[in-house]
């Protein structure tokens, strides 16, 4: 009996030592020796050498001088990886894609070829009376999505509800037995009640371009301008990945944004736009990588890596051109 007990204890101890100690230590040593950057989380350093993020996790960028990543169904929250799981018939999917298109859509044909639709859309918004109330009535799902987009949006509706008890009473009368409404339940009356003030100044409670005027009202503008010819937009700029955290966009998607980025950096650094465009194109070609060492898929760009490289390159070797 004692002999069998010793054998089992020896087997247990050797298994623990081999699987829980030796194996882990061996992987750690191999990682630190042969793959130190990957083992450290593929961290990317910014100015001063301090890590600013991982090359494996997408980050949101909204400035004109930055390449923007793919949309994220989890707001780029690395602890909440996932997709929306919306099907092609889901209206909210169409709404989200339309909001992504609004800030980036461009005309395809002359005389406005290559020009953004944003200015025309903003002028249409300013010249269209009752546009906010019409939008809320026509697209109640989009109005609800605005409320649910952020806690600050919900707080704005809650504050409005407290100041407009009649609207709350009206909702309860039309929903007997439903109890107190959630903020999103009052989205339509909220926008109706604020139609005039929001038409004068659209609320920007969060720094998210997908909830600006050109995003929210792109669908309505497009329907009012039937037949307008727009450039095709690379699919990865308006679709989310399965994880919501894909750090890459296609080279085609990066080139679609190239003009905007170059224009912003030209203004920021006083470098001629043609020079900036050339530097950015060279950088994109240099950084583009297809999966499996080029054997599969299309060339991809790591958004964080390229944004850091642009800032480093344009603040370094590129010399400002002489302005006349």
Summary?
The protein is mainly alpha-helical. It is 52% helix and 4% strand.
Features:
single chain, 324 residues, mainly alpha, 3 domains, two-stranded antiparallel sheet, 15 helices, 52% helix, 4% strand, disordered C terminus
Protein architecture, described:
- The structure is a single chain.
- The chain has 324 residues and is mostly helical.
- The protein folds into three domains: 1-39; 41-83 and 242-324, no CATH class; 85-239, no CATH class.
- Helices cover 52% and strands 4% of the residues.
- It has a two-stranded antiparallel sheet with strand order 1-2. Strands 3-4 form a two-stranded antiparallel ribbon.
- It is flat.
- The N and C termini lie far apart (97 Å).
- Residues 316-324 have low confidence and may be disordered.
Assess the beta-strand content as a share of residues.
Answer: under 5%
- C-alpha termini separation: 97 Å
Helix content: 40-55%
Overall number of domains: 3
Q: Which spans of ≥5 residues are poorly predicted at pLDDT below 50?
A: 316-324
* Average pLDDT: 89
The number of E-state strands comes to 4
H-E order: HHEEHHHHHHHHHHEHHEH
Count of alpha and pi helical runs: 15
Shape, please? flat
Radius of gyration: 26 Å
Helix- and strand-based class?
A: mainly alpha
